[in-house]
Design a protein that fits this description.
Elements lengths: L3 E7 L3 H12 L5 E3 L13 E2 L9 E2 H14 L3 E3 L5 E3 L5 E4 L4 E9 L3 E3 L5 H5 L5 E2 L2 H4 L7 E5 L3 H10 L5 E6 L8 H8 L4 E5 L1 E8 L5 E8 L5 E5 L2 E4 L3 E3 L29 E3 L11 H23 L1
Parallel strand pairs: 1-2, 1-8, 2-5, 8-19, 10-17, 11-12, 11-17, 12-13
Antiparallel strand pairs: 3-4, 6-7, 7-8, 9-18, 14-15, 15-16
Bound molecules: NADP nicotinamide-adenine-dinucleotide phosphate.
Length: 310
């Protein structure tokens, strides 16, 4: 076991890297675990147009590389490993990866959230064979094809718009008539000639063709119950996210949806453990708000550590 670190940061999205920049500049020599998806959700997105300071927009992966470079510039130690177990019952806290055990006086959790799926058997079986949860990753595999996008939030609108770069036709399938998405995103899709709509429909099954790839989706009208088969080559699931908080089960207070509960800024139910970004924020979930709460967690941790020494 190595020495006790001042701060260990779990997660490498905008929240984690911002917490790293601030704690590193405060000479706390943070150790950051990137986890399985270094850079977080922004690495599977395209243009980020709403992060201040980028008037022309920036590609998500490029922005996250810049966050990492900035965190490293001030001395953050970064490890490409995943924390699989934590013990917050006594201090210093203990954190384990598959290979090693670490100790920390304070911990900042910024593990983010992951794409939600419909929960259909066929969805898992056909993942990578026409089913995807990431347009940026897989859109190019569908040139001139018919694509369905499931969902009615900003993610669905963004993915649908992006997929029109590749597909012949993109159909948004949503279980209601009203959208959770912002008006500007819906309007952008409505103005896109390649986008069609199937509203009040839910996906009840995904049907494979003889080649073992997606052939059609079986939809059910949410009002009449009537079922219809819609031929398509690709189905992109864009129905929101689940917080990555499983390893904190019974260790920290969480809400009914699994988001870590914070108070007075970023304090969790355990003194010395702080949470920031999408793992504690089910309302805003933006890169800029995640970065903002990352900054708050760093300042909270710094002040808390100072108070322990006093
Ligand atoms: P969201 O806003 O929670 O929307 C999820 C959508 O999926 C809803 O329309 C929901 O339908 C539908 N849905 C959920 N579970 C479903 C199921 N089992 N079957 C069928 N449909 C289901 O999630 P999001 O679109 O990922 O957006 C999350 C946050 O990120 C939002 O704050 C959004 O503004 C932000 N975001 C912003 C941008 C941008 O500005 N560029 C891009 C992406 C995301 P109901 O409405 O019927 O519940």
């Amino acid at each position: 076991m190595s020495e006790v670190r001042n701060v260990v940061i779990i997660g490498s999205g905008p929240a984690g890297y911002t917490a790293a920049i601030y704690t590193a500049r405060a000479n706390l020599e943070p150790l950051l675990f990137q986890g399985l998806q270094p850079g977080g959700q922004l690495t599977i997105t395209t243009d980020v147009e709403n992060f201040p300071g980028y008037p022309e927009g920036v590609m998500g992966p490029e922005m996250m590389q810049e966050f990492q470079t900035q965190a490293e510039r001030f001395g953050t130690e970064i490890r490409f490993e995943q924390i699989t177990e934590v013990d917050f019952s006594s201090r210093p806290f203990t954190l384990k990866t598959d290979f090693d055990t670490f100790q920390a006086h304070s911990v900042i959790i910024s593990t983010g959230a992951s794409a939600r799926l419909l929960g259909l058997e066929a969805e898992t079986a056909l993942m990578g064979r026409g089913v995807s949860a990431c347009a940026t990753c897989d859109g190019a595999f569908f040139p001139d094809k018919d694509i369905l996008v499931v969902g009615g939030g900003d993610s669905a609108m963004e993915e649908a718009n992006y997929l029109t770069r590749f597909g012949r036709k993109v159909t948004i399938v949503h279980r209601r008539e009203e959208f959770r998405a912002s008006k500007i995103m819906v309007d952008r899709c409505k103005a896109n000639e390649k986008i069609d709509w199937l509203l009040n429909k839910s996906v009840v099954d995904i049907l494979p063709g003889d080649d073992g790839k997606v052939r059609a989706a079986l939809l059910e009208d949410t009002q009449s119950g009537e079922q219809m088969e819609v031929e398509c080559d690709g189905i992109f699931i864009a129905i929101g996210h689940t917080p990555n908080s499983e390893i904190f089960e019974d260790k920290l207070e969480k809400d009914e949806n699994g988001y870590i509960v914070v108070h007075d800024g970023t304090y969790t139910s355990v003194d010395g453990v702080f949470a920031c970004g999408d793992v504690m924020d089910h309302i805003y979930r933006q890169a800029v708000t995640a970065a903002g709460t990352g900054c708050m967690a760093a300042i909270d941790a710094e002040r808390w550590l100072e108070a322990q020494e006093a």
